[in-house]
Design goal:
Layout (H helix, E strand, L loop, with lengths): L2 H25 L14 E3 H10 L1 H8 L3 E11 L3 E4 L3 E5 L11 E12 L4 E11 L1
Parallel strand pairs: 1-2, 4-6
Antiparallel strand pairs: 2-3, 2-5, 3-4, 5-6
Length: 131
């Protein structure tokens, strides 16, 4: 084989497999498993909401997109959501039992910010730690 043929083959291989490599190793990343992560802090729903009300930017810098445990009493329950102390909305990983209403609970999840409309801190990927 000539040097020109080898160069052409290398270029064809790079064009063929380059985008696949970039997708697999740079763009595509596995989703976080919040349940297996260690929480950075355990805080009551009331204290978390107070922090967001007093200084939203500072609270976002501390909590946004971080794994946190919330303590409080379950005030609302639907099939896959809980509201803790009327202040923290939790999108659960699994179905939730209605019997949890008015029970003290610890929830671990990822903070996704403060909802001004409902005046609630929002969490997703939540799981029950104890009750």
């Amino acid at each position: 084989m000539t040097k020109t043929t080898i160069k052409v083959l290398v270029i064809i291989l790079l064009i063929s497999f380059g985008p696949y490599y970039v997708y697999q190793n740079i763009l595509y990343k596995d989703a976080r498993d919040i349940n297996s992560e260690k929480s950075i802090v355990t805080i009551t729903a009331e204290n978390l909401e107070n922090e967001y009300n007093s200084n939203p930017k500072q609270a976002d810098s501390k909590y946004l997109n971080k794994t946190i445990e919330i303590e409080g009493k379950v005030s609302e329950v639907t099939d896959s959501t809980l509201v803790i102390d009327g202040k923290v909305f939790c999108k659960m990983n699994e179905k939730v039992k209605k019997t949890l209403r008015n029970k003290q609970i610890n929830i671990k999840g990822r903070c996704i910010g403060f909802d001004d409309l409902f005046s609630q801190v929002k969490f997703d990927q939540c799981s029950i730690q104890q009750h």
